UniProtKB/TrEMBL annotation:
It is an enzyme of class 1 (oxidoreductase). The keyword Glycoprotein does not apply. Keywords: Lipid metabolism, NADP, Oxidoreductase. Belongs to the short-chain dehydrogenases/reductases (SDR) family. It catalyses: all-trans-retinol + NADP(+) = all-trans-retinal + NADPH + H(+). It comes from Sciurus carolinensis (Eastern gray squirrel). GO terms for molecular function: all-trans-retinol dehydrogenase (NADP+) activity. PROSITE patterns: ADH_SHORT. Transmembrane segments: none annotated. Pathway: Cofactor metabolism; retinol metabolism. This is NADP-retinol dehydrogenase. It comes from the Eukaryota. Its EC number is 1.1.1.300.
Amino acid sequence: MNRYLLPASVLGTAVGGAVLLKDYVAGGTCPSKATIAGKTVIVTGANTGIGKQTALELARRGGNVILACRDMEKCEAAARDIRGETLNHRVSARHLDLASLKSIREFAAKVIEEEERVDVLVNNAAVMRCPHWTTEDGFEMQFGVNYLGHFLLTHLLLDKLRASAPARIINLSSLAHVAGHVDLEDLNWQRRKYNTKAAYCQSKLALLLFTKELSRRLPGTGVTVNALHPGVARTELGRHTGMHRSTFSSFTLGPIFWLLVKSPQLAAQPSIYLAVAEELEGVSGKYFDGFKEKAPAPEAEDEELARRLWAESARLVGLDLSHGSPVRGQSLSR
């Protein structure tokens, strides 16, 4: 019997060490214990994955949480789940299709009319490496949903955010931005041969450029904006990549994926941290990899590119910023 004790002990130690290593690699849970009672939070794409876990934890911390999703059946189900798990009944589901400028405007108008305040906007929703689809308004799908839709939504809610200051905007970018390039002459892939991976990387780089530029236009408003890379997570976002259907990926790379790929709950922790951490009060225009601030790719720091992208984005979504921003009071023009 004793001859089995050592192997069992070694196995137990190995398994325990592997779990600890995975937790370390994944970054762990949000270090801030701050609560947000009385604050209103909007999370886009909150019916599943990182968005749902973000909404769940912010509801647990006392927030009035609005789940903003395209699929209302799934959104209502997620809201019920969160209310049941947290016993916080201030969790609601609202329709928002980021592939439709009309839907974005309708959602924002309803929020402005019905909500007394908006303290945190988490621009979480995304599509990844989908076929060459276009939005309702003719934009390349990844650029339209991941970036342009959030660009418009953020602008339409800036008045409400500023009136609720201190307020926070959180943009979910990606490490993939380092491989991105913003082509101002062909943002919607009408001239180039379509490359779904490059289109995704462009959309995430555009979000970072927007984060940087918006932060330069917000000093003195009490509104901050930051971007983050949540890590690689097991979510529906990767459904178009085909990796989950690959036998090679499943068996040969399985142990590596297990170590490096986060659960949606762990991948949501950086968003939660940026939303609640008291030590981040006043911090703006930064890029976080997990909980740590990091320098983004050089193109994300290009101020001239950011200004030009801002102007072109406003034109594409129909915002007249020639006399400033749609926000009353302090102008956001530069």
